[in-house]
């Protein structure tokens, strides 16, 4: 059986990472079904230059609209005839697993977890405990109000990982699950074409951790993880920079070198500062 006979369901295809999932899966030879919230999202994906590079694309890429990812059974139709599933969403992970458990034929689900699912979020910004964390580390879900958006994000990833592990343990499904745990994802977002969108965001009041992973690398890792010949029911950390890590302040020099005209014209102010915390 060739990869062209294998259908991969991918959610959040218009996201920074989700779009790269689609490209990497297509390049690997898979047929892809992208779950989207509206038909307009499909048009955005089809306008991506990397998607246009595939010709003809109609036979290899299809779409299904899933409007509310939190409803029970919302993925029931989407998982029909699917052999593999890549799920990058924060919400709806348990619903994905439940829908997948209702059909036969799914071999593996690859879920985008995060390093913050196993490493307490304060380790990234505030504390230096000296602990060496591995992919087997367990972080409990704290039942307390979140102090900021990043803590809320981290809590959601902790909850999703624990819920996934409990589901597999309690239901013993016919598929296995791999959780990939990227660090900060950086790299080109092909679907961002407006300067205003590039300039959106806020400056942190605390140092950014030094761990990063290139978006193309982590997307390709998800697709490689679909290979059912590799051991399932595993967790893998993903980081691109090794021990040294990323120094966020280097961005000033990188932007000035690669976009001198935009900096000179103040299209890119290039005057900020983001401290780095070693992690």
Describe the overall structure.
With 279 residues, the chain is an alpha/beta fold. The longest helix is centred in the middle third of the chain and has 23 residues, at 149-171. The N and C termini lie far apart (43 Å). The chain has helices at residues 16-28, 39-46, 49-52, 93-100, 122-125, 149-171, 195-198, 215-224, 250-258, 260-264, and strands at residues 7-11, 31-36, 61-65, 84-87, 108-112, 176-182, 184-186, 208-209, 212-214, 235-238, 276-277. α4 (93-100) links the parallel β4 and β5 (108-112). α1 (16-28) packs across α8 (215-224). 33% of the residues are buried.
Any descriptors?
single chain, 279 residues, alpha/beta, seven-stranded parallel β-sheet, two-stranded parallel ribbon, 11 strands, globular
Are there runs of 5+ residues with pLDDT below 50, and where? none
Order of strands, main sheet, comes to: 3-2-1-4-5-6-10
Number of helices in the DSSP assignment? 10
SS elements, strand count? 11
Share in β-strands: 15-25%
Mean pLDDT: 86
What letter string, H or E per element, gives the SSE order? Answer: EHEHHEEHEHHEEHEEHEHHE
| Major pleated sheet | 7 strands, parallel
Distance between the termini: 43 Å
Q: Fraction of residues in helices?
A: 25-40%
Sheet/helix structural class:
alpha/beta
Rg of Cα set: 20 Å
Shape: globular
């Amino acid at each position: 059986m060739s990869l062209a006979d294998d259908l991969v369901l991918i959610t959040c295809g218009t996201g920074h990472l989700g779009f790269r999932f689609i490209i990497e899966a297509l390049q690997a030879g898979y047929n892809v079904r992208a779950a989207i919230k509206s038909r307009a999202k499909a048009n955005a994906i089809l306008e991506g230059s990397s998607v246009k590079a595939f010709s003809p694309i109609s036979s290899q890429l299809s779409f299904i609209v899933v409007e509310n990812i939190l409803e029970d059974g919302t993925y029931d139709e989407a998982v029909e005839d699917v052999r593999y599933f890549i799920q990058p969403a924060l919400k709806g992970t348990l619903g994905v697993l439940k829908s997948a458990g209702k059909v036969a034929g799914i071999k593996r689900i690859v879920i985008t977890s995060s390093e913050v699912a196993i490493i307490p979020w304060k380790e990234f910004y505030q504390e230096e405990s000296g602990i060496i964390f591995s992919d087997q580390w367990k972080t409990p879900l704290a039942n307390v109000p979140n102090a900021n958006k990043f803590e809320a994000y981290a809590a959601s990833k902790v909850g999703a990982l624990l819920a996934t592990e409990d589901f597999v343990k309690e239901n013993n499904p016919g598929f296995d699950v791999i959780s990939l745990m990227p660090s900060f994802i950086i790299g080109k977002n092909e679907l961002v074409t407006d300067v205003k969108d590039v300039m959106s965001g806020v400056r942190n009041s605390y140092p950014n951790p030094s761990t990063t992973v290139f978006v193309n690398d982590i997307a390709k890792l998800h697709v490689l993880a679909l290979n059912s010949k590799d051991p399932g029911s595993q967790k893998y950390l993903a980081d691109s920079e090794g021990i040294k890590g990323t120094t966020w302040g280097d961005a000033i020099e990188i932007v000035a070198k690669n976009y001198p005209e935009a900096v000179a014209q103040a299209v890119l102010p290039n005057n900020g500062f983001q401290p780095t915390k070693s992690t």
